Amino acid sequence: MSSPSDRAVDAPVLLVQLSDSHLVAEADGAMFGLNTRQSLVQVVSQVQAEQPHIDLLVATGDLSQDGTLASYQAFAQATAGIAAPMRWLPGNHDEPAVMQQAAQGTQWLEPVVDIGAWRVTLLDSAIAGSAAGHLADEQLQLLERSLAEAPHKHHLVCLHHHPVSIDSSWMEPIGLRNRHALFELLARFAQVRGVLWGHVHQEIDRQAHGVRLLASPSTCIQFLPCSEDFALDDRAPGYRWLRLMPDGQIETGVSRLADFSFTPDLDAAGY
């Protein structure tokens, strides 16, 4: 496996995003009746079939639902067949200390990756005990350093919580609380090309604040877009691929499982 820094600056970079797997310690653990480990394995199999040459795999939070070491080990095992460097960032259901334990001896939690003509910065927006997100001063300082140190690279910023409204009333209070601080910082650096996040369990692709704004499906259950109250969508689990071009353009798309059928058990354990 090559290092991300080995990628030629004049070649496109293929990044795959997995998000919101919500694994638990038990192999038969389910969310609303859907076995989250099984759906992750299915999505990973589709990634392997569709993306034979991946430069970077990014997991944008909520890898775990119960914060157990076994759940992170299961995520690592499920993704082990993807021959690419991997990075994790925490979501509101994750336990950062346990993630650290699971990632010991790896670079999975290293927050800055230089790859080709790009720099990818991964931020921790999780607040202990809260579903909402916040970028602490140290995270904003990390981002500022990352941007300032690489003025000639194109930048992709990754986090868990949505930094813009997604027109879903029940999710509005659990997004990034200090989103204005993030965008005020990004506005100072013209080389920022995109912001990528998870948390919302749905596909979003917009242009705002001068950057591409992208969110992606969960590898398990999906949330119904533009919903007033909590509601599930019947769309299939999936992943996002991003082709980061040497000129700063982003080509991207979402791939979902085919022939997927799931009837949620709303009385079962949920989000």
From TrEMBL:
Domain of life where this protein originates: Bacteria
Molecular function terms, GO-annotated: 3',5'-cyclic-AMP phosphodiesterase activity
Family of the protein in this entry: Belongs to the cyclic nucleotide phosphodiesterase class-III family.
Key words of the record: Hydrolase, Iron, Metal-binding
Protein name (database record): 3',5'-cyclic-AMP phosphodiesterase
Enzyme class: hydrolase
InterPro entries: Calcineurin-like_PHP, CNP_phosphodiesterase-III, GpdQ/CpdA-like, Metallo-depent_PP-like
Name of a matching Pfam family: Metallophos
EC number from the UniProt entry: 3.1.4.53
Domain Calcineurin-like phosphoesterase: 16-202
Species: Pseudomonas coleopterorum
Entry-linked CDD domains: MPP_GpdQ (cd07402)
